Amino acid sequence: MSRKKLAEILGEIPEDGVKYHLEKLKEEGKIERVGGTRGEWKILKN
């Protein structure tokens, strides 16, 4: 799902906000990117 589509579904968060939160989750080691530009996010277990 694209950031744009996710922002549309969430309604109150703009696309840049979705990007911010994804980056924050990535930095915290909670998610990782699998694949390239058209890849997906994988949720990591702690």
UniProtKB/TrEMBL annotation:
What sequence ranges are listed for the domain LACTB2 winged helix? 15-41
Q: What is this protein called?
A: LACTB2 winged helix domain-containing protein
Q: Which organism is it from?
A: Fulvivirga kasyanovii
Name of a matching Pfam family: WHD_BLACT
